């Protein structure tokens, strides 16, 4: 797998530091609340696990699975709900944990969906923000890193369900996904 990586953008140590920083920020914001923390599957799994352990505050955890890439390197433009949350968010504070905010479509879909369900507040924590890919307005409240407009994998992010288990975030060599 490592041979498929053009360059490492963020090391394991840099990711750990970002998780500590973001966990402390989240702890301050939710110190007197019990938010529903919703991890966006599958990409945010590693990040969510690491970040919630850094926030010494009460929280409930749930997951949602949405898809827009369908095994490719670009969003299809359509967001599909694959697996829904099981928690009632009506009147609750919600924190969405995302791996990457790219086009903004997934985040807009999630925020609209949770707003319709009556969430009192919705904040977003993303490991990676890629403003150059943005097609819809989508802002995060907590951001780990800003990334260039390149295809990144590792630490939960994938290409065709592979590379999620890399302990760092790297740029995938273009020949890996252009030859498939």
TrEMBL record:
CDD domains for the chain: PRTases_typeI
Its EC number(s): 2.4.2.8
This protein's UniProt keywords: Cytoplasm, Glycosyltransferase, Magnesium, Metal-binding, Nucleotide-binding, Purine salvage, Transferase
Cellular component GO terms held in the UniProt record: cytosol
Reactions listed under catalytic activity: GMP + diphosphate = guanine + 5-phospho-alpha-D-ribose 1-diphosphate; IMP + diphosphate = hypoxanthine + 5-phospho-alpha-D-ribose 1-diphosphate
Cofactor requirement: Mg(2+)
Subcellular location: Cytoplasm
Domain Phosphoribosyltransferase: 12-159
GO molecular-function terms, A-Z: guanine phosphoribosyltransferase activity; hypoxanthine phosphoribosyltransferase activity; magnesium ion binding; nucleotide binding
A Gene Ontology BP annotation from the UniProt entry: IMP salvage
Keyword Cytoplasm annotated: yes
Enzyme class: transferase
The protein's role, per its UniProt record: Purine salvage pathway enzyme that catalyzes the transfer of the ribosyl-5-phosphate group from 5-phospho-alpha-D-ribose 1-diphosphate (PRPP) to the N9 position of the 6-oxopurines hypoxanthine and guanine to form the corresponding ribonucleotides IMP (inosine 5'-monophosphate) and GMP (guanosine 5'-monophosphate), with the release of PPi.
NCBIfam families associated with the record: HGPRTase
Family listed: Belongs to the purine/pyrimidine phosphoribosyltransferase family.
Name of the molecule in the record: Hypoxanthine phosphoribosyltransferase
Organism: Lentilactobacillus hilgardii (strain ATCC 8290 / DSM 20176 / CCUG 30140 / JCM 1155 / KCTC 3500 / NBRC 15886 / NCIMB 8040 / NRRL B-1843 / 9)
High-level lineage: Bacteria, Bacillati, Bacillota, Bacilli, Lactobacillales
Gene name in the database record: hpt
